[in-house]
Amino acid sequence: MKTRTLHPILLLSLATLAIAGWIGIRTPGTHFTDSSRLYIDGTSSMHDWTCEVTEIDGSAEVRRAPNGDVTVAAAAATVSVSSIECKNGKMNGKLRKALNAESHPVIAFRLTNATSSVPSSEGRVALTINGKLNVAGVERDIDMPVIVSFSKDGGARFVGSLPLLMSDFGVKPPSAMLGILTTGDAITVRLDVETRAESPIQTASDDAGLAR
Question: What is the pLDDT of residues 147-162, one digit of tens each?
Fold first, then answer.
């Protein structure tokens, strides 16, 4: 009886598939879509105001286990100060000056850690995003609660909000009309970011199963 020998390349392919099935595969890096938005809400001595950012450059690597747990392995984002639009030319100029846009034209965020809670019945997951936020050349640690949901094509949507003080980043709240109009120090940053997978998402194995 003849014994068939498998070709080395076939053996390597089978081994790769077996290992991938055992350890799971991380979701590939996903870039933010054009529909991603960031809003900055604030107050002034005359009226409340909102500025919008429609150009957010960033990506995130998300891992989803069979039990629904979500891990964000990496994430980073940058926003050009000049892209912040307040629908008021004077406000735009005042804000860019306050943020020292000439010396620090970019606001940057990088992830340091993310923890998730138990997924809801709708498939959404509550995350706490920990990271470094750099505004006007000053870097601070932030903790932002977000809700993550997934699309069928492997993308993810992150929605959350974070209260901040401009003074924490050395930013003096803008004023106008010889100081008659002053803006409040407290602002709220609202995030609504969607990612698009570069290739179809693949669910990772439950880490608890690996420990056994």
Answer: 998 888 778 899 999 9
DSSP helix/strand/coil, 88: coil
- Do the Cβ atoms of 50 and 39 come closer than 8 Å? yes
Q: What's at 78, amino acid-wise?
A: T
Around Cβ 193, how many Cβ atoms within 10 Å? 21
59, with CB counted inside 10 A (0-12, 13-18, 19+), is middle
Q: How far, CA to CA in Å, does 128 sit from each of 50, 62, 142? A: 24, 14, 10
Residue (of 190, 165, 178) closest to 45 by Cα position: 178
**Residue position matching structure tokens 């055992």:** 22
The vertex-48 CA angle with 44 and 50, nearest 5°, equals: 115
Q: Which tokens belong to 143?
A: 């903790």
Per-residue pLDDT band at 99 (split at 50, 70, 90): very high
